[in-house]
Amino acid sequence: ARAIAAAAELPPGNYRVAVVGRARFGWFSSRAFVVRSRPFRVASARELEAERASRLPPVFKTSNLAVGVVSGGYGSEGILAALAEAQGVEALALNRLTEEFLRPCRVVVFPQPRQRGATSEEAVAALRQFVVRGGGLLATHDAPGYRGHPVLFPEVCEGGARRVEGSAWRVTATHPLTAGLPRGKPLPHSYYDAIALHPGPAGRVVAEALGKDGAPGGAVAVCGTVGKGRYAAIGLALGIDEADRETAPR
After folding, report:
1. 3-class SS at 34?
2. pTM of the entire predicted model
3. Which residues pair with 162 in a beta bridge?
4. What's the CA gap between 211 and 195, in Å, rounded?
5. Fewer beta carbons under 10 A from the terminal one: N or C of the chain?
């Protein structure tokens, strides 16, 4: 056996290295073989820059409301797309839930993570500190505390109670969170279900989910003050459609 060294300049893409040949057994016997490497990716300059940026806290460049949208969740891209069109808002992806990454933000949107157990105790502590010191936090669908996701602020919302199948909801209270929305009128949302929430002792219910039959399904928007900041738990899957595709909320 002998080692072979080779170099190649490959364009960005996915690859595997294959060694093809024949193995000889004695003088008169041989057999063809193929050995393949694990798949690997050659990253583009754009991908490398995005990877470097993901390791740094967000840098807001305007005096507009600084909003960090936690990346990688259900609806993260859809919500970012919607906020990009909002006046007076500068929204950036937020790649880590640490004090350093949260500090530049005035508001954080926390879409449901795609994996259960992805939110560590350290991340919950950082979010709590962020709100207590005056930040605003909005968590969607399971993220307020349902199906393996930790309860973030039990004093406002004690987590999810159950799934409500249906694509409608309605405002039940006059509140800044529901400003401009008609009270009591069924409103559509893009996903096929919502999470009914348990309000905590300091939580105020401002909207409810509606089942397929139009019957009330329980609180779907609960908000409250924690320390100097504010927290809103939203049981709607904002930013995705019924096929789990990213879509800007209407």
Report:
1. strand
2. 0.82
3. 196
4. 11
5. N
